[in-house]
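S1.2 Input.
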Amino acid sequence: MASLAGGGAGRDGDDDLISGINITPLVDIVLVLLIIFMVTATYIVREAIEVDLPRAAHGGEATGTTLAVVLTRDGAIYLDGVRRTEEELAARSREAVAKDQGTRAIISADRASLHGAVVRVIDVVKGAGVSRFAINIEKEP
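S1.3 Output.
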């Protein structure tokens, strides 16, 4: 009888080991997928509107509420990644200034875009009440 009790106790011990679930591999897989998503998301966003920025040796960083205005080489205007007309750009700029007086505009113009088109975009943004703006550049190495 002693041998039966010993055998039964061994089986009860095995049942206690299986009662827990190890989630460490699941967490590892989720973290790897999160990192892959974060890295690929930056490439997806940057390829949305292709602009060849001019280079400059000295450039600063802007912080605060900003309007991202992009002017492509064919003259198309994008505001925060959405194609807009000049009228829509002016209306959205006025809305942003109404919410925050310190609104800034960062204008990214393709180096092949016409100077007159860049000046026109600056004029539209300033006419909407944005008093602070910057020209986006690519820093020279």
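S1.4 Remarks. The beta strands are 55-56, 66-71, 77-79, 82-84, 104-109, 132-135, 138-139.
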